[in-house]
Amino acid sequence: MKIILHPYPRFVDLIIQFIQPDHNKSGQVMPKDISTIVSMPDEVKGVLKKACYDCHSNNTDYPWYTYVQPIHWFINYHIKSGKDELNFNEFGIYTPRRQQNKLRAIESSLKEGTMPLWSYTLIHRNAILSEAEKSLIIDWVQSSKDSLNKKANSSVH
Ligand code: HEC
Questions:
Q1: Which residues form the Haem-binding domain (predicted)?
Q2: Separation of CA 7 and ligand 1 centre (Å)
Q3: Which of 17, 40, 106, 114 is the 20 to 30 Å CA partner of 87?
């Protein structure tokens, strides 16, 4: 009888499934975080964290009820599609053009009031942004766009 030693046995896949957190949490330092690309004052970060990061970052703050199905499924779906569109922790991976587009999209989502998703603000009342918080973010988007433009122009030479 021959014992076949597979270099990567199937059960390893299985074990990985158990190890992998099914939750969107990451304790790692994120080298591609948006704050490594443009400067991000603490107040800006605070607002984005409370209103956007649950769906647009690698860290989601899960209240207890999200452990209940189908809420869990529903929320994971939003996190997945939100992160696909925009992930603040992976902003540095985007091409400069995409970074500009995303910043523009953030601005219009706030002006039009499409973000955060209304279904989210039903539960997370503090994610409803005041006019002052919105203008804080919009001003920050403006200056971030300018600084990205300057970077792009200086790298042309
Ligand atoms: C409950 C989850 C959730 C929260 C909270 C949330 N978003 Fe979103 N966001 C989504 C989903 C899902 C999409 C993709 C589908 C869509 O556009 O509806 C999205 C899409 C976007 C897009 C579009 C990206 C593009 O390229 O068109 C922007 C910009 C955005 N969100 C910004 C924000 C900002 C800014 C906040 C906080 C003020 C925020 N979002 C809060 C779930 C969320």
A1: 10-145
A2: 42
A3: 17
For the Cβ of 124 lying below 6 angstroms from any atom of ligand 1, the answer is no
**Boundaries of every domain in the chain:** 46-154
CA 61, CA 50: separation in Å to the nearest integer? 9
Residue pointed to by tokens 């990985």 = 16
* pLDDT tens digits, one per residue of 17-31: 444 445 666 666 588
User: CB 60: neighbour CB atoms within 10 A?
Assistant: 20
Q: Give CA–CA dist 99/103, Å, rounded.
A: 6
Phi, psi (5° rounding) for residue 67? -80, -10
Distance 76 CA to ligand 1 centre (A): 14
The CB of 117 under 6 Å from ligand 1? The reply is yes
pTM, whole model, 2 decimals? 0.81
Whether residue 54 has its Cβ less than 6 Å from ligand 1: yes
